[in-house]
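[job 4471] stage=fold_predict status=RUNNING
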Amino acid sequence: MAKKICFELDDEGYERLIQFKRVFDVIMEEESDLQEYVATIVAVGLETMLKDIIPQDREVLWDTIRALNRRNPHIFADFLVDVLTRSEKKAEEVKKKVKGEALRYIT
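[job 4471] inference complete, writing structure tokens
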């Protein structure tokens, strides 16, 4: 179920958001409605921030994954099963990821 949220932007932020939608639509190869666009921008922003705060060092990352598994093995196992069984959707996910990464470099 979708939740509604309202927020205000200053003039500069509003103009940047509205004008960048044109770039977003070109990347997505179709015109999106404003709600879909803003939801995607927020999701990409959250993912990017998460990526920035998670350690990039592989050893630290693996230690983090193992710690998550120890803390809540049931949820961790459910998550891995879900990820591993989505292989049929992999091509679409890769396409979305590439588009998402493109958005990161354009802004």
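[job 4471] summary: The mean pLDDT is 84.
[job 4471] exit 0
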